[in-house]
């Protein structure tokens, strides 16, 4: 049982009146949980797109992959997991099938991306413009592959960046990446 439940109404009123406890009103237009939509499974090696319902924008996304395997070895790589537009999320597997997921809510979204592909093995960042806040991010990748076209690379970063603030970072061990940031007003 919480401390607040154990306080008598008179003690609760006195604590509240003394300013030791404050109420936080819920705004009339309080945010609701995002709607989650998903794409159909892609064809092998092709992208999938989850599209937000009318009147909503993407606030984040992700994927579920059925990776390509060779014997008992996974030889696949997610080469894209990022916003495709302010109203859709894309996911792309190098060789396997993939399903894209998008979280959608009413709002105003701006998609930022790093200015160029990173140098091989180097991280890159996408910075949200002033007046917006980072809510999610993603990446596109050009991983290193062997002569059979099998992945031999690893995604080493796909997260909010330490520096600069309000940015998303992405990077591969050997290959090149572009970072994408979902920025909401």
Strand-helix topology:
Elements: H1 3-6, H2 9-17, E1 35-38, E2 47-51, E3 57-66, E4 69-70, E5 73-74, E6 78-85, E7 88-93, E8 97-105, E9 109-113, E10 124-127, E11 133-142, E12 155-160, E13 167-172, E14 176-184
Antiparallel strand pairs: 1-8, 2-7, 3-8, 4-5, 6-7, 6-11, 9-14, 10-13, 11-14, 12-13
The helix fraction, in percent, is under 10%
**Biggest sheet architecture:** 6 strands, antiparallel
Mean pLDDT: 85
Domains (count) = 1
Q: SS-based structural class?
A: mainly beta
Total helices: the number is 2
N- and C-termini, Cα separation: 39 Å
One letter per element, helices H and strands E, the order comes to: HHEEEEEEEEEEEEEE
Shape: flat
Beta-strand portion reads over 45%
Number of strands: 14
Radius of gyration: 22 Å
Order the strands across the largest sheet as they lie in space: 2-7-6-11-14-9
Spans of at least 5 consecutive residues with low confidence:
1-29
In short:
By secondary structure, the chain is mainly beta.
What does this 3D model show about the protein?
It comes from Embleya hyalina. Keywords: Signal. By secondary structure, this protein is mainly β. It has one domain (32-184). It is built from two helices and 14 strands, in the order ααββββββββββββββ. The chain has helices spanning 3-6, 9-17; strands at 35-38, 47-51, 57-66, 69-70, 73-74, 78-85, 88-93, 97-105, 109-113, 124-127, 133-142, 155-160, 167-172, 176-184. A hairpin with a 2-residue loop joins β6 (78-85) and β7. It is flat. Residues 1-29 have low confidence and may be disordered.
